[in-house]
Amino acid sequence: MHGTDPGGHGREHPDGDAAGPWLATDRHRFNAREHTPDSVTRTLTPDTVRRLAEGSTAADVPGPVTLLTAWTAVLHRHTQQRDLLIGLDPASFTDAAAPAGNTPDAATVPLRVRLRPDAAFADERARIHTAVTEALARDPGGTPATDPRAVAGRAPAPSLRHGTWDVALTLDSGPVHTHLTLHYNASLFTRATAQWILGHCATLLTAAVATPGTPVRELPVQDEPAPAPWRLPVPDGYRPPEPARRGEGLVDRFRRTAAAHPARLAVTGPQGSLTYAELDRVSDTVARRLRRTAGPGDRVALLYGHDVGAVAAIWAVLKTGAAYVPLDPRQPDGRLTRLLTDADCTTLVCDPALADRAGSLARGARTVPADPFDIAVTSPAPPEAPTPGDPDAPAYLLHTSGSTGRPKAVVQSHANVLAHTLAYADRLRIGPRDHIPLLARYTFDAAVMDLYAALLTGATLHVEDPVATAPELRERLRRAATTVLHTTPTLFRHLVGDLPEEGGPDPAFASVRAVVLGGEEAGQHDLRRFLAAFGRNAALVNGLGPTECTLIAQYLAGATDLGGTALPVGHPVEGISLRLLDEEGRGTELLGELEVRGERVAHGYWNEPDATAAAFGTGADGTRHYRTGDLARRRADGALVFAGRKDRQIKLRGHRIEPGEIEAALRSHPTVAEAVVAVDTRAPAPRLVGYVTPATGFPPDTGELLAYLARTLPDHAVPWRIVALDRLPLGPTGKVDRARLPAPGELPSDAAAAPTTPLERTVAQLWCRVLGTDSADLHGNFMAAGGDSVRLLTLLGDVRRELDAEVPLLEFLAAPTIDTLVKLIERET
């Protein structure tokens, strides 16, 4: 009996029947130009063989049906599909003299199986027996492999011998032993993976024939993988950070670190530099100012750009015992006001240059301007402030987008941040000799890993703005003598994208010993660029860590991973356990939603009891857990691979985006009745598209809506285009049928404005080159079309070199379109 064909995942047959199960392959299908047959075999125990025969006889079903039922259960476990299409070898079921599941030949019978995981194995076996009988009655001889309609139009040649089946399972009974054999396409699967799948078949079959009354979903396929050793090289002289002491919090550890390394450079950035002793003194001074309105149980907002002031302000707030709420001054005032109101902040600490804006945002909260370098110069050393005493108190509230359309704030404690930090620092071997660039802004969870890992181990933190050309950024990293580089894959691609793939490592990375990727999915291309640009002594670490539990999994990638279909996110880190859940939230082994378990899970979402209850919980053993919404699959080596999102949350250019927040903002406009946001994946860079229906007798002005969203949402959440429809397409259940949403440009009313003048066409060519697109809309938003701050600087640099025009960055950002850029160029020239 066969298993999977090379059809597309999730697609249906022309008649609407079941899709063939789609097993994840080790190698890309488009690289597998030839079918390479191979097989692996396992001998069943005499007890299993006896139970298989006795159980089949007692149930009055042929032995191959029992095997087929087990095979179907294994395929379901690997794919989480319940509606399956499997090819049958007719001889196995009709010729009593033939061994069960004979090696697949050139004729098969398609069998549709709708598995019920909650049903007992014996019940499913009976149902499948009926289905097999009916299928063989319809097509007793099987469909020849030369028939292009074989297997309901999916596979032109379904036999293993002739070419297109990915896997097939057979049972061969000899005079002494009975063998279970998995035939597989070695162009797609490694032998190790084939043996792994075969082991699942043998394990589940053994359990099923022993206890046929067990529900299918409860039959085991494998044990929980053993912890994987972490083999990142250890630098000479490295000493692991001391474990957290009982009751120790972030401030306690920082004071100990500052006392051990008072003269060492702690943090440096465009504003200047501070030693550990200076950073400790500056933050103590600001903390004393804050204590009139901030203390344990309070929230203090921070309004700083990406510089040393933000770092000093964080420590000042932590020293009061309050939790900090970071605000990004690049975001619209409307959003910042919502975050302040949501967090109920008592105080707002800001860069003095932002004091006027902070005052307008504060709305009753006390505003405290604080420049660390003014303090360092003018203030005497204050007496040491008392250390906050509760390590379980909140350290920060980091906002993400909520599916209800409201921002959600993740609450994390001092003790948990410290535990994550020490684990991250030890895994990356971070110590006083290291230089860590802080590329992520303090509003992102990625900054938590770098900021604390550096400043709680005696390393130097270099606050670097990634908004620079690739050569400029590489030069900054070289001057900083960077040793551990943590970045999103998008920024990593910018950093190395202009380097030749041949010619050896770039000198700018000579001091880098580890590159850590996170925040979005990394792939084979990133691994190839890493191997080309970095020295042989550098390591690439891919990983996964949601804001709700900073660090959960890591994977040490290398040349042996080349040629695969994905770059794993790896194995759980120390102190964390990971579980896969099926659609009903029950544990499963191979594919499902990723659940994090451990004491380091965040406390929940601030003032969001329903959202907290839906995502967080505590098990019977008292262990906290968090359902990430990320789907993951397990490989044969136990490593996890990211497999998309369970819900509608998406990631674009390193940003977590909830379409619900954008839809809620659109619906708040008086001209909009309904709104849906989708992702257009046809362009080289995925982009957001909004669809709206009118609330009045006139269609909404899509340009006005884009401007409205730009004043309300961060730029990465503003759609590339908004399409006005008379009504949204609905499916049979009354829900929006997203598959029927028209692509932008398909409607006459949605035609893009094409550049017409020579200057417009020239700018459009530069625009398309930077974004990697074929066409450009005169009024299309650069950021929404796939741009980011790095590509923005690249575009303006190209304009400067090729058109001899210096375009003011802030003026272009106010309306980043070709039309705006052309007007600014004409003004400057």
TrEMBL record:
Keyword annotations from UniProtKB, A to Z: Phosphopantetheine, Phosphoprotein
Domain Carrier positions: 754-829
Highest taxon of source: Bacteria
Gene3D superfamilies: 3.30.300.30, ACP-like, N-terminal domain of ligase-like, Nonribosomal peptide synthetase, condensation domain
Phosphoprotein in keyword set: yes
One Pfam family named in its UniProt record: PP-binding
Keyword Mitochondrion: no
Region annotation Disordered: where it falls in the sequence: 1-22, 137-157, 218-242
InterPro entries associated with the record: AA_adenyl_dom, ACP-like_sf, AMP-bd_C, AMP-bd_C_sf, AMP-binding_CS, AMP-dep_synth/lig_dom, ANL_N_sf, PP-bd_ACP
Name by which UniProt lists this protein: Amino acid adenylation domain-containing protein
